[in-house]
Amino acid sequence: MRPILEFEGVTRAYGPRLALDDVNLALEPGELAFLVGPSGAGKTTLLKLINREIRPTKGAVWVDGISAHNLKTARVSELRRRVGVVFQDFKLLPRLTAMENVAFALQVGDLRVSDQEASERALDALDAVGLGDRGGSFPHQLSGGQQQRIAVARAVVAQPPLLIADEPTGNLDLETSWEMMDLFADIAAFGTTVLIATHNVEIVRRLQRRVLTLVQGRLVRDQPAGRTGRMAWLASS
């Protein structure tokens, strides 16, 4: 079975500075992995390459068999339907309800989805993240943890094979952060590949999942699930 995500010799330069330097990695279906490293290590650049916000200077990025590195602009929307994205600051539309936020994301990604189908699938996604009874609530009426759950529902409503999250617990308290990790683990258990960029050392250490460590743009360590080493925590602090 082909990996859901592959980086083959990926380098990304911003002028003379290398944000990523010859990165090679592969993530399998249903795998949950953490991406760690100090500020400026290249984590956000790596995530942007997956979602084709930017192109690599050199190398190849494959997302569910699609060549993100040389994809024509007309096909970028096709790629993004295969990648769910969760942000640290939620990025919910304040004038839309929880259900409308999720449905809107679905229809933006696929104009063929009718209003009725979008609403039904949005409510199903909200139910899956434990907020089936808050579909009519606006973001300001919800806690930070609830808003992040809506953001997750929005990211998975199209059932993408890959979910990426950039510091998804950065604005959450510890208890809510653990609830979010349980949710990501459940998503992976159903077959979605999940990649989480984080500085949260405690979560990474305790969950014992695969850890990819970036330092100055280079992938310096790839620790298999169940094995944790001191370098990863030092690099992510």
What does this structure look like?
By secondary structure, the chain is of the alpha/beta class. 35% of the residues lie in helices and 25% in strands. It contains eight helices and ten strands. A six-stranded mixed sheet has the order 6-7-8-3-9-10, with helices on both faces. A hairpin with a 2-residue loop joins strand 9 (210-215) and strand 10 (218-223). The radius of gyration is 17 Å and the shape is globular. The protein starts with a strand and ends with a helix. Mean pLDDT is 92; it is low at 231-237.
Residue runs with pLDDT of under 50 for 5 or more positions: 231-237
Mean of all residue-level pLDDT scores: 92
Strand order of the largest sheet: 6-7-8-3-9-10
Q: What is the count of DSSP helices, taking H or I runs of 4+ residues? A: 8
Helix content range of the residues, please? Answer: 25-40%
* Number of β-strand runs: 10
Coarse structural class:
alpha/beta
Strand content: 25-35%
Evaluate the radius of gyration: 17 Å
Overall morphology: globular
